[in-house]
Amino acid sequence: MYALLILDMQVGLVHGPDKPLGGPALINTLNELMRSAQESGAPIFLARHIGPAGSPIEPGSPLTELVQELQLMGNEVIFEKKRPNAFAQTGLATLLRERGCDGVVVTGMKTQYCVDSTCRAARDCGFDAVLIANGHTCSDTQGLKAEAIVAHHNATLAGPFCRVVQAEEWSF
């Protein structure tokens, strides 16, 4: 069984000053994936990235709250993480195993940080990883446009680290 993992769809990232590429389309895709997971009985996990006290994303900061546009159903597992890799120091692997999951579908933000490191770590933790090609995003950087970052990671991660699938082609 595969679980849906949504990374860091937080107010500070989605609605912050550096708007992510295709934010509204991504939210629609994530809502569709959540509905599909729900209908199939697949677990849904949402990670919130929390920083140290005194940082803009310190515990309790409104910037760490999940965006209201996500259509949560009430049975999701919401957890906090302090590292880009959602498996590091979170207990995520244990939670997945307790629910009978041997695979994880990775989505969310930011492509070059948390999405990348979580895809790479999933296999190391013994899980099959699927990256939804149109289910993750980031903002432009000084060196690269977001579109290039997303395309690069879809190409780089495919194969050795995960399968890359369009949302419309995935079923739980």
Task: Tell me what portion of residues adopts beta-strand conformation.
Answer: 15-25%
Q: How many domains, in number, for the residues?
A: 1
> What is the annotated CATH architecture?
3-Layer(aba) Sandwich
Structural class: alpha/beta
Assign the CATH topology: Rossmann fold
Sequence of secondary-structure elements:
EHHEEHEHEHE
**How much helix, percentage-wise, in residues?**
25-40%
Shape: globular
Radius of gyration from CA coordinates: 15 Å
Q: Distance between termini?
A: 8 Å
Arrangement of strands in the largest sheet:
3-2-1-4-5-6
Descriptive account of the structure:
It is built from five helices and six strands. It is of the alpha/beta class. It has one domain: 3-Layer(aba) Sandwich (Rossmann fold). A six-stranded parallel β-sheet has the order 3-2-1-4-5-6, sandwiched between helices. Helix 4 (111-124) links the parallel strand 4 (103-109) and strand 5 (128-137). Helix 4 (111-124) packs parallel to helix 5 (146-157). The radius of gyration is 15 Å and the shape is globular. The termini are close together.
What secondary-structure arrangement, pairings included, does this model have?
Layout: E1 2-7, H1 11-14, H2 23-40, E2 44-49, E3 77-81, H3 92-98, E4 103-109, H4 111-124, E5 128-137, H5 146-157, E6 163-165
Parallel strand pairs: 1-2, 1-4, 2-3, 4-5, 5-6
Helix pairs in contact: 4-5
